[in-house]
Amino acid sequence: MHTFNSIIALIIREFKINYRNFSDILSIFLFFLLGIVIFVFSIGENKEIFNEIGIGIIWTLILLSNNLSLRKFYQDDFNDNSIILFHISGLSYEIISLIKMIIIWIFIQLPFFIIIPLAVLLLNIETSNFHIIFLSFLIGSTIITCIASISGSMNLLNNKNFAIGSLIIMILSIPVIIFSVSLINVSDELIKAQLNILLGFMFFFLAITPWICAACIKLALQSK
Amino acid sequence: MLLVNNIYFKRNNRQIINNVSLSLSAHKIIHLTGNNGAGKTTFLKIITNIIELQKGEIYWNGKNINKHPFYFYKNFTFIMDQNTSNNSLTIDENICFWRRLFSSKRNNKEIDSILELLSLNHLKKTLINYLSYGEKRKLELSRLIIEQKKLWVLDEPYNGLDQISINLVNHTLLNHIKLGGMVIFTSHFSPDIPNIENLHLDNHAHL
Amino acid sequence: MKFLINPNRFNNFSNIILKPLIYLSIISLILGLVFSLYLSPNDYQQGLTVRIMYIHVPSAWLALLTFFIITIYSIIGLAFKISFGFIITSAVAPIGATFTLICLITGSLWGKPMWGTWWVWDARLTSVAILFFLYLIIIFLKKSFTNVNIGEKITAIFVLVGSINLPIIKFSVDWWNTLHQPASISKLSTPSIDPSMLRPLIIMTIAFTLIGILVAIIRIKAEILTRKLG
Question: How many domains does the structure of chain C reveal?
Answer without folding.
Answer: 1
